[in-house]
Structures are given as structure tokens and as C-alpha cells.
Amino acid sequence: MIQMGDEVLEKIEAGIQRVLADPALKSELAGWTRTVALRVDRDDYTICIENSSMSVVREKARSPDVEIRVDKATFMDIASGKLSFTAAYLRELLSVKGDVRASDITRLQKLL
Fold first, then answer.
1. Which terminus has fewer CB within 10 Å in the chain: N or C?
2. Which domain holds residue 28?
3. Residue 1 covered by a domain
4. What is the torsional sign of CA 35, 37, 48, 101?
5. In a domain, 97, yes or no
6. Are 40 and 75 in contact (CB under 8 A)?
7. What does the alpha-carbon distance between residue 65 and residue 76 come to, in Å, rounded to a whole number?
8. Which CATH number do you get for residue 86?
9. 2 assigned to some structural domain
10. What is the pLDDT along the chain (112 residues), one digit of tens a residue?
11. What pTM value is reported for the model?
């Protein structure tokens, strides 16, 4: 459930809905299972991806596969399309830790 005024949660939910509404994007994420801990400034979010099912909650992830830390301004640039996830990663504007593969970065970019 989206908390009023939580722009980050709203952007993540919008990304999930965009992917679920697009059969091509949805099929690209099929077979992918990850728990992503996203920390935006001091706020924690957990994104669960299991095949074509995706959800987000505003809480710290327990045993995430991938951990991402980013400031809110960078996150909003990524979510609005002004900056790609890959470019932010390569410029070290966000940190990614855990069981991360190149395909994970590409898939996360489609979601965010």
C-alpha cells in the first residue's frame, strides 16, 4: 500500500505497473527471482520479484539478494528517465552489493 507523499514508493509502484502492463517487458523478467533491498537516503524498501510477480513494501529487506543504496535526487532522475540505472551505476552515483550479475543491472533498469 502506498503511503501518501512517498514519492519513491509511488515511482517503484509505477515501474512495477508499467512492466506488468507491457507483455514484452514482462516476458524479459520471466524466470527472474530476486529480493532487492533499496535504500533511498534513510528510507528502506523491499522489492520482491518472482517470475512475473512483483511487489514493493516500505521496510528493510531480510536476506536480500541485491542491495542498492542511492540518494533521492539520483533515484528520482532514474525513475523519471533523466538518468539510466546503468549510467548511475557506472558513475558510482549508486552502490550495488550482493549477488549481482550484468543481467540483473539490465533487468533492474527496466523496473526502475
1. N
2. 7-111
3. no
4. negative
5. yes
6. yes
7. 23
8. 3.30.1050.10
9. no
10. 444 469 999 999 998 898 889 888 888 878 888 899 999 999 999 999 887 788 999 999 999 999 999 999 999 999 999 998 889 988 999 999 987 777 777 777 777 7
11. 0.85
